[in-house]
Every structure is written in C-alpha cells, then in structure tokens.
Amino acid sequence: MFGSGSKITFRDYVQGTWGSFDTPAGRVDYIMTKARLGGDADAPERQLTKSLAPVREVMDAGDLDFNQLLQRDLDDHRVAVNLIPYLLKQKSTGPAFFPPIVAVLLPFQNKRPTSFPALGAPTPVEHDDAQWREERAGNAFRVHRLLDAEGQLHGANLGKLWWNQSESSLVVLDGQHRAMALLAVERTLSRSWQGSGAQFRPFYEHQVESLLREYQVSEVDLAKIEVPVTVCWFPGETGEPSRPHEAARKLFVDVNKEARPPSESRIILLSDGELSNVLTRSMLSALRGRSGSYLPLYAVEYDNPEVNTSRPARWSVMTNIHLLKMAVNRCIFGPPKYLTNLAQPISGREKAEERDRFMRTQLDLVSLLPEYLDDAGYAYDLDGIGDTKFPLGRSEALAGRFMDTWGQAILTLLSRTAPYAAHAAALTSFKDSWHTANTHAQLAHDALFGGVGIYWTLRDSYDHYQTNRTQDGPKPPKSDVIRAWEALKEKESEFDEHRAHEYLGSVRPDAIRRCKAAFGVFNTHACQLGMVMTLGSLWEMRKNQPGGADLKDLPAFAEALVTAWNTFFEIDRGRARDRRYAFSKDSSNSINQITNMDTPNAVYFRYFWMQALTVPSVWQHIAPWLTDRDAFDSGLGDARRLYLDLCIKQQSKALEVNQPALSPGKREEQAKKLATSALKKALRNWPRAGFQASSRARSPMVKPVNPPPSARGLE
Question: Who contacts 493 (Cβ-Cβ below 8 Å, separation ≥6)?
C-alpha cells in the first residue's frame, strides 16, 4: 500500500495523510508527510528533501515578477550558523525539533510560471493491491486517495501525490530557513551543489563539513533526522483561466498572519491588502523589464530586512522601495493639502476617507471602472473604492492606469534628472567593469546586482566572523564569504570614482569628495520625495490653469520638469556657483540649511526644487504648462516662508546652546536675522531669483518646439 508501485509515470511523489481546508486563497488540499536526511537514497522521504526548493532557485531572478514573490528573503547566515548546528548536534536536554515545513506544488516550465492542465474527474483505479480514487492534471501531477470496500474514501485518509518536475516544482511557502538547512546538509553530503543553488554553496559547504566532523555525525545519525512537511496544492487553480501563483501568495500571507511579521519591504512586495502596495510593485515590475529609459532595478533597494527612515542602506543603490511607496502615498493618496498648500508641514493623522477620495480623482477611476461592479462575488461601489477596499480582479487595470500616468512620471524623475541619471549610469558602467574571476568576487557582485538578500547575509556573516576573532581559542579562517564582504567595502571607493566621472566629469580627489557629499543629500528620502511632491504640487496648479489638466499628459509634464531641472544643473560650472552642488551642505552659502534628512523634511526640499525652476533659462521649459505664473509665484512664496520658519527654529536652538544668556525675545530676533541673511546669500549665489516673499517678476516664456497637447493654443 505504501510502495511507489510498478506503473508510475511520475518520478517524484509523497505519501501520507491527506486533508483539505478553505482559506482566502481558495480550497487547499494537502498531504502530511516527512522529509529525511540519510538512509535509503531512493526513499520518498529522502527524495522529498531534495525536491524542496526556495523560490529563488525555482525562478530566474531576472524573470521574477514582483507580484509572484512568495517569501521573505533567505537569511543564509542564520541557516548556516544557527539552524544547521541545531539540526545536527546531539543534545542531552532533548531532541532537535522543527515545526512542519509548508510547501506548495506550483506549475513552472523552464523556470517560468505557467498554469496546470485542468484537473480531470475522479476515477477509481487499482494500485498496489488497493483501490484508490485518482485525479490527474495532465502530465503535471496526479493524486490518489484510498478507498474502502464500498468504494468510499477510507477513514484512514491515506493519500499520494505524484508530480513531474519538468512541469511542477515544490516551492517552500513557510519554513524556508528550515528547508534550506535540510537542503544544505543533503547537497553537501551528496555533492549536489549544482544548478541554480550552486551560487549559495560558499555559505554552507565548509560549515556543514566542519559540523559533521565536529559532531561525528554518521549516515545512521542522519537517518534519524526527520522533519514534518505539509505538501499543498490548489485543486481549483487548474486549467484556464487559473492563477495558482497568486493563490500561493495569498496563502503565504494567511499562513504568516500570526507569525513574526515579515519586513516592511517584504510586505510591500507580497501583500494585496493595500492598493498602494500594488501600485508600488507595478513600478518595480516596470524596472524589471525596463528599456534603457529607466534606472536599472539594481539601483533600487527592495530587499532590506530592516527599515532606515531617511535613506537606503546600501551604498550602491540610489533609492529604495520605501521611497517609491512614499511617492505613491503623496501623489496618489495625498491627502491633497500636502500638494495644494505649500505652507503645510507633514504631521498628524491622515483621514482614510480623504485619502481614498483623492486617489479616485488622481487615477480618474470614473473613466476606468463602472459605478457598480462585482468582483469574485464581492460588490463594489466606485465611491467606496480605496486603499484597503478595492477589487482584486481589477488590480491589473488599476496598476495599468497608474503606470500610464503617475508611475511613468515618477520613474521619469528618478531616472532622468541629472544627479539620478548620473548615479544609474555610473552603476551600470561599474557593473560592466567588474571582474568575477573567483568565488568571492562573484559573491560580492551578486550581492549588489543579483541575488536578493545576499548583501545582508554577507554583512551578518562578516559581523559574526569579527566577533569570533575577538574570542579566545583558534581564530576562524577567512572564507570566501568574508572575502566577498571585504571586496564590497573596497569596491565602494571605486564606485565613487565612476559616479564622480559621470556627474562631474572628473575623478580628482576633491571632485570625488564633493560628489559624495552631494549624493549624501540626493539619495535621501527627503530630497527625492521633495522632487516627486513638486511634480504633484505643480500638477495641482495646472488643474486650475486655463484648459485644465489631462491625466494622459502627466508623463510629458514630467519630461518637461526633467529638462528644466537638468538645464538648472548645467548652469554656472564655476566652482563657486556650480549648480550640481546646489542642494549640497558641503558648499558655501548653500540653500540647504536643513540639519537632518528625516523624510517629513521633503516639504523643504520641494521648495529647493521649485526655486531652481525660477531661473529664466530653466522656466522656459515649463512655462507652456503653467501659463498663470502668479499661481506658481504664490506657491513658491508659501514654500519659502515655510522653509524660512524652519531655518529660524534651527538658528534659535543653536543660539540657545551657544548663547544661553540671551533672552527668548533677543534670541528669536537674532535667529530671524541670521536665517534671513543666510537664505538671501544662498538665493543670490544659487538660483539667482532674488529674495522676495511674493515674487511677481515674470520670466520670459519661451515656447518649446512641441508644446504639450493640452497646452497648444493656450500660449
């Protein structure tokens, strides 16, 4: 009854107790079984160990759509240092025990997600001298359930599942670190570090071999290590149309609801619970399949297991997934006061109803969706659609509208504005010049440009190595993993040269230093979000211009903004007034007097980006879009006063420390004088627009060769 039988056409199978349950992902069938190390190499339990696969090995990273991500990033360091010793070491205090691993059978061909053939009707079959009920999905998989003498499902609930690895893969849905511990031992023992898992061999092989020797583990001992596994599949997600990968993602979220929460980055990549996450992922997916017009995906940090509130953590990247979501939140959800009132600081609670209402306007949902719709049995009213209540079946349409308009515009700013274009170009040339002749160089390269999560594994492994070096006893050897991290640290200065060459056309030490200081500002959330909020605020102004604003023109407006700002960065290349350092705090009479780069300070950077547009040669590029200059000047005055108030507060705090004898009144008076004087000097030296609280001096309006469609006839 428990044998594999003599007529099997499928190579891989599991057997055990079968069951079924309902989840938000739909019906899930499963077999409870086990995976084992050691013992008979052909036993199904041993074969199951080999079949378990993290998603990173099932799919090519270059083909991975962010909507298909199923898991947290693997922490290879944690697996190698903590889980494998726990699994192998004999303990007098009790046995090592792993909770069940959850794996799901999903359709793949050549590492690309596909769909299963339709599941056939149940038929009785005789197999291994017993009666079974068989269901078969073409050549992808088949299921047997044991029948009793009356032809009914047997009370013992015994079942078998076969699958064909050319069409199916067992992807670990929960417990991937436990599964990787098993895999690492199995692959080291059988010398089977091959294929897509080979790049992770340096993290494990030496560690496993050392532990096997240290703990004197034999084949007999390994055969005693058995780990429970639940193998799942979706009987309702076969045939066309079906979405088994989407169902798996939903099941992942359901399974992990009560577990330690995934990182914020992983929630954005996985969760369909918020429309803002769906829209953010659509930008990442656009970068995945980018043409040469957008920044490369490896310039975006989307795998950080931690949260940095002001900037990306990795030196090679330009921005991160948190900034992209912030851009979605401010431009799509608002609330509108942050875009229309340029004297409004970011603070306080935001009303969900107001955010949702603004989103429906920003995406013009009335032209995209019917007033009432049904989606998977749920009724939706157009006026009730919001961030946490939206039709999942229309996600692609919503993301498509976003990418055709705001998404494209946001990526245009982040990809083509001079500092960011220079960073992206430098990173690409840096990547192309990287030689990967040995293992540690390849690991370092993959940490920046390839494997998701590898960078953080190298970092943690190096920290662990450094800790062990300070302890008594023999010093740990320097492995390829440690050499890879050291190589990364050395490569940072090489990248700084590439970036200085792209941005400044020079690799002199002083140019490299000043360039690095400038990008210490450009790569902050505050600076980037300020640029994106400028787009949002100016688009709100355009809505009130003669002729209004047509959403389809938004990408062209973003292009005009990029052209204008790039013109600004080209002005006055002399050292004293080089506009490429305009936002840097490392230059004399800098307009940037902000003491910290916290994200809410984006409203002050919006002022800097707007002030740059006032230079006559710059303004000509956006003049046809904003024919009512008075609205712009009024908003600029509000933004400037808001920024001046910040500078006064900062000066007052400094005086309180440096001159504590000053009375509050005198301190406030002197702080206002110092802040105003510093801002006047900055405006004379940088944008040259003068310092008027409400400037009404019109700059010449030069028509572009091809004015935007909705601006033609309005000049």
Answer: none
User: What residues contact 210, with CB distance under 8 A and at least 6 apart?
Assistant: none
Q: Which helix (H) or strand (E) holds 202?
A: helix 201-214
Are 249 and 278 a contacting pair, CB within 8 Å? no
What are the residue ranges of helices labelled H in 41-93? 44-51, 55-58, 76-78, 84-88
- Contacts of 565-573 spanning 24+ positions with Cβ under 8 A: 565/417, 565/418, 565/609, 565/612, 565/613, 565/618, 566/416, 566/417, 566/418, 567/615, 567/617, 567/618, 567/621, 568/612, 568/613, 568/615, 568/618, 568/687, 569/418, 569/419, 570/418, 571/615, 571/617, 571/618
Nearest CA-CA partner of 679 in 666, 665, 693, 669? 693
What does the CA dihedral 387, 393, 397, 403 come to, rounded to 10 degrees? 50
pLDDT at 321: 93
CA gap 626, 640 in Å, rounded: 19
Under a CB-based contact definition with an 8 Å cutoff, are residues 495 and 489 in contact?
Answer: no
* Model confidence, pTM: 0.77
Three-state secondary structure call for residue 658:
helix
pLDDT digits (tens, 9 = 90+) for 311-355: 888 999 999 999 999 999 999 999 999 999 999 999 999 999 999
Distance between CA atoms of 682 and 679, rounded to whole angstroms?
Answer: 5
Distance in angstroms (rounded) separating the CA atoms of residues 183 and 50: 6
Asked if 172 and 71 count as a contact pair (C-beta separation under 8 A), the reply is yes
CA angle 400, 387, 384 (to 5 degrees): 100
Are 499 and 511 spatial neighbours (Cβ–Cβ below 8 Å)? no
Q: Name which of 535, 268, 566 is nearest 406 in CA terms.
A: 535
- Distance spanning both ends of the chain, measured CA to CA: 84
Q: What is the pLDDT of residues 510-523, one digit of tens each?
A: 999 999 999 999 99
Using alpha carbons, list the distances in angstroms from residue 285 to 33, 69, 248, 346. Answer: 36, 11, 19, 29
What six digits make up the tokens of 572? Answer: 């006055």
Element housing 514 (H / E): helix 509-522
Beta pairing, strands 12-23 & 26-36? antiparallel
CA–CA dist 670, 662 (Å, integer): 10
Cβ neighbours for 635, distance < 8 A, ≥ 6 positions apart: 342, 537, 541, 610
Q: Kindly give, in sequence order, each residue whose CB lies less than 8 Å from that of residue 271, ignoring residues fewer than 6 positions away.
A: 253, 277
Is residue 301 within 8 Å of residue 349, measured between CB atoms?
no
Alpha carbon distances (Å) from 145 to 29, 122, 257, 688: 12, 10, 31, 80
Do 200 and 458 form a contact (C-beta atoms < 8 A)? no
C-alpha closest to that of 184 among 40, 64, 70, 88: 88
The ranges of the chain with pLDDT < 70 are 1-9, 24-25, 60-73, 90-96, 219-220, 256-262, 289-292, 307-309, 451-452, 572-576, 587-588, 686-715
Question: Hey, which bits of 603-707 come out as E strands?
Answer: none
3-state secondary structure of 328: helix
